[in-house]
Amino acid sequence: MRTIDRFHFAVSFALLAVAGSASAQDTLEVQPADEAPPPLDRWDIAAWDHFELSMGFIAGVHRYDHAAFGLDSEPAVPGAGELVEPFEDAPFDRLTTMGLRYDVRLVAAYTRMTVGIDIPFAHYRPTDAQGTYRLVDADRRVSVQSISPFLVHFGIGGELPIGPIAPFVDVLGHLRWTNATLAIDGIEHTYSEHGFGFSLRGGLRMHVRRWFYASLAGEVGLVGSVRWGGELSVGFAVM
Question: Quick one: which of 104, 115, 107 has its CA closest to 49?
Fold first, then answer.
């Protein structure tokens, strides 16, 4: 009897073990595998409506030889308030700039709406920033100490996504404020000007991830101080 009971126990244990193994196997097969990230060649990666936040580097050329600079304070040197000629010469006629750009943008239905700021820094040779000019009844030595531009831009444009890459074109309107410090016979005077202009920007945005992208663009001035420029930016896309 004991032998039969042991036989029944062994058979029952074996059946339970097989059933448990089959159940565990079924459970493992039912569990879904981790989903892989979407491939970068999906057609809708760059086409979805979203907000963009970007920062990048800019470089280019500005011209201020047609800008109306005015003296900001009482002149310490006679005739300083009527000084015009230095702003028509180098470096104001072709000012090389390099700096930073920050943009906030809404992209919806292939339309781009942009607001941003440019913080360019002037680069020029000291020999291009000095000269002798006639003021009232005397010749004065004038040298440019600093030029500090600042721009706020507003853009309207469009883009046509192709996979993770989106070629785009923007029309940018620039509000600009520019300060310049000139030394007249060694005495510093501060001048400023402001104005508005337009430029045309075109480039490519490429999504490295759905939420992260890099862009490369070129810009050409239509009206105003911007002559031409380039931009390299990275940003985040959120919605």
Answer: 107
- Count CB atoms within 10 A of the CB of residue 25: 10
Task: Specify whether the CB–CB gap between 58 and 100 falls below 8 A.
Answer: yes
d(CA 151, CA 142): 27
Task: Look at residues 58, 98, 100, 64 and name the one whose alpha carbon lies nearest to residue 201.
Answer: 58
Whole-model pTM: value is 0.78
Could you tell me which residues come within 8 angstroms of residue 112 by beta carbon, excluding any fewer than 6 positions away? 105, 106, 155, 156, 157, 158, 159, 168, 170
Q: So where are the chain's domains? A: 1-33, 50-238
What would the CATH number be for the domain defined by 50-238? 2.40.160.20
* Per-residue pLDDT, 25: 46
Kindly report, residue by residue over 73-82, the tens digit of the pLDDT: 888 898 898 8
Asked which of 39-53, 140-154, 220-234 is least confident by mean pLDDT, the reply is 39-53
Residue 91: cis peptide before it, omega within 30 degrees of 0:
yes
For the segment 149-160, what is each residue's pLDDT rounded down to a tens digit?
A: 999 999 999 999
In this predicted structure, the answer to whether residue 196 has a pLDDT above a threshold of 50 is yes
Query: In the numeric block, which tokens belong to residue 211?
Result: 């939420």
SS3 content of the chain, % helix, strand, coil (to 5): 15, 55, 25
